[in-house]
Amino acid sequence: MTEPARSFDLAAEEYERTRPSYPTQVLDPLPLAAGAEVLDVGAGTGKLTRVLVERYARVVAVEPLDRMRAILARVVPEAEARPGRAEELPLADASVDGVFAGQAFHWFANDEAVAEIARVLRPGGVLCLVWNGPDESRANPLPAPYLAYLEMLRAERSVLADTPPFAEVIARGPFGDVHEATVAHDHVLDRAGLLDNARSVSWIASRPDRERAAVLTRLGELLPEGTYVVPNLANVLWAVRE
What we know:
- Helix content is 35%, strand content 25%.
- The chain is of the alpha/beta class.
- It has a single domain, classed as Rossmann fold.
- Strand 1 (37-41), helix 3 and strand 2 form a beta-alpha-beta unit.
């Protein structure tokens, strides 16, 4: 696991408090019955897991980071929380009907992980990726200088810029056509919540302590007090195992 990926454990509580959830409608397009047994890979603190347990009969949630997994076990006790990583899943062959990755696939978008996901899926099972992103069709209430500084920080340190398109990675595995849909929703945070949210992203959390403190101080200077309704899109991409 890369150092940026490990950095999530440094801000696990901030991640849980301030990362956006997912609307339940994001599962509606999927060809999975309510009685399905599913796996959530890279489950983090259970942002997607808590939506899955409302819909499906059995949910196993795999998360490699100890602090993240401890929160997951606490807030979503209905799921079976297990340690593990996408390239070496702690499940038997053909043991689940669906495999989900919520805001996580970019960390393991590789042929080894896709082959391992295909191994645990039953024939006709579904691989589904879910992630939140900005809804650019609606105005963002955050100050332009704040957004510009965040983008500068991301550009200088993000390790994900060269990640191949998800559909391209999945197409190299034993999967059929890739389908996509989106669901609009809002992420509501006050100033303190937004700063904690920034603290939880890998390209800030992974910085040395002094540098991270300086970054958060500058972000605070650029963000007035208030409650912000940030427009989001929950993106869903899925393909059926052949």
